[in-house]
Amino acid sequence: MEARIEQIKQQLQSQGYKLTSQREATLRVLLENEEDHLSAEDVFMLVKDKAPEIGLATVYRTLELLSELHVVEKMNFGDGVARYDLRNDNSKHHHHHLICIQCGSVDEIMDDWLLPLEERLAQEYNFQVLDHRLDFQGICWRCKDKDSSD
Question: How far is CA 118 from CA 93, 97, 115, 135, in A?
Answer without folding.
Answer: 11, 19, 5, 17
